[in-house]
Amino acid sequence: MTAQEPARARPGESAGTAGAADEHAARFEATRPVAATRPGFSAAALTAAAAAVAVLAVAVWTILVVLDQPGPGLVLAAPVLGCAAVLGVLAARRRRRDQATAGLAGSMTEPIGVPDTTYLEVDARRWKGGWVGIPHLLNVRYPTVVDDAAPGWAEAVARAVHAHLGEQYVVARHNARDGRLTLRDPSRSPGPLSTQPEPEATPDPEPARRTTEKIHRPPPPGDQRPGRPVALGVNASGAQVTWDPGGSHGSLLVLGRSGSGKRVLLTGVALEAAVRGWPVWIIDHRRVDLHGLRDWPNVQIVASTLDDQIVVLEHAWREMESRVELVESGTSPADLEPLVVMVHHFREFATAVAEAAARADQSAAGAALASDRVTQLLRHGGQVNVVVVLSVQRADDPLLREQHRDDLGTVVALGRLDAPASSVLWRGADADESAEPVPGRGVVRVGDGTAATVQCYWTPDPREARRIGDEQDLRLIEAFRPHVVTHPVLHVQRPRARSDSPAATWRATLSGELTEGYASAASGLVDWGRARRTEQSDDTAGAGRDAGGWSEIVMVSQLEPGNLARIDDDTGWVVVEQVDAVENDGTRLRIQWRGSDGAGTAEVSRTRTVRIRHLSDGVY
Ligand SMILES: Nc1ncnc2c1ncn2[C@@H]1O[C@H](COP(=O)(O)OP(=O)(O)OP(=O)(O)O)[C@@H](O)[C@H]1O
């Protein structure tokens, strides 16, 4: 052990020398908790309260007897005495529970590795079974100098508690940095969450290292059952945690501060939805967070300007309304394909809409447009397969208030929550639930079910993955690329505003439409429709012909003979004739191409990106 290492405290171990033992004791001494903080009234406080109430009852009775009113005296004193008796009983139970907790702490000193129970704070909760009962949740604080890094340390503590109480416990959470361990009765763990590994779940070979490393999203199974739940991540025991968009808790709210992993989780959800063939509409309020999903097959639109975002939200709401009408006229909801509507940074978006409405002199209804639409989508969308996925940054967001709680479905809270937020979010039931501030680490809760820790899967942004060229990320992205585009790209078409006034612009925005294909004024990222139109305008005979089709960026390693590609600016658009490996160079490919000005060969890095064009046949 080096001088910097913390003392390894194991009762029963003989310290090498008296000096070392003293040093060890001194180090522990400094970590002794000042006073155990226990929630609720102490047994002494309850006893004192019982005595005070009993004295009050006797005093009331005595006064009324002196006033020659023994009957009313008895009527008044009896219930007060009853209260005193109840307080006395509670005090006695509290004392018994404190004794049981002290016994529990005693059973934990050895496996935890502290000299005695004064170094531990044991907060025992959810007592059930009999008058005193046994606690079903144990929050333990121990000194951070304890050596808790050994494999199986936390499980050994759980076993010791099991031996002491005869009730089995599992490790719900272990925060080594702050010296906190939470044990709970395993019967609480199952619930709506999938705590058993799904058949396709990839077992984590090194669970102990999960705290620090990315866990890559498992590739989609060959069998693309549309109803298959969406994987979110893994729980503390390595089992896959999933979200069922088609279930009764179909919407997903992702809560977390900046950098906690909201964008990464939303990217994963979008890819999972797209590979199932579901259309995905995205409102990306910060404009660039999810723009890597633009042009991704089945992601129909990533709206980045406020006007476009309002149109997308309006359309999602209209889509929901028309689906409701369909169901009313006899269509089975099961026949309605899921539509995933994602709003990243919902609160900022709603505030921006309210400000735009105020500038346009709109009524309160205009200002609340985003909140109202989202609330209605949350409330009714699930019944007609319009699935809402939202991200927000703050746990005190009005959306999380009590009146919306039943509509929220599945909630993933990433990172650490402060106690009041946690208590509001989990309705006080698991007020201690909060995850460590590790990116992607969170607590997930489905409806009113049990909250569980989750490490969300890492999902790369498709565009970033291509730019960086990380092999593993690129493989993952390719595994998720849908083979067939079942839902064409959409763009917003707005009527021209009658004037430049904010009110006219607002009205024009609200009557905007979502139209198939790319906008003619779109950026160079989506140039196929525009390029075709330009060529046709030169050729007057071709005017009015189909201008469908789109382009996308792919890696050179994805090029196939027959692709229409722009290998570089010199070649312009050419047809790929053959793609071969370069001898003795695994990093490059030889591409034979033919263009309008002749043919040629180019040796290009496998991971370089090129743009290819597709005709609008719906098939990649
Ligand atoms: N599941 C994850 N596994 C590993 N690393 C992650 C995970 N999620 C996020 N990260 C890391 O954290 C960084 C920030 O994540 P992300 O951009 O998703 O945060 P955010 O909550 O969307 O932030 P903001 O609110 O500022 O947009 C990522 O770039 C990545 O490095």
UniProtKB/TrEMBL annotation:
Transmembrane segments: 41-67, 73-92
Keyword hit for Ligase: no
Residues the entry annotates as binding ATP: 256-263
Superkingdom classification of source: Bacteria
Entry annotated with the keyword Transmembrane helix: yes
Protein name per Swiss-Prot or TrEMBL: FtsK domain-containing protein
Location of region: Disordered: 1-23, 176-232
Keywords tagged on the record: ATP-binding, Membrane, Nucleotide-binding, Transmembrane, Transmembrane helix
GO molecular function, one term: DNA binding
UniProt cross-references to PROSITE patterns, sorted A to Z: FTSK
Biased composition (Basic and acidic residues): 176-187, 206-216
Source taxonomy: Bacteria, Bacillati, Actinomycetota, Actinomycetes, Jiangellales
Organism: Haloactinopolyspora alba
Domain FtsK span(s) in chain numbering: 238-423
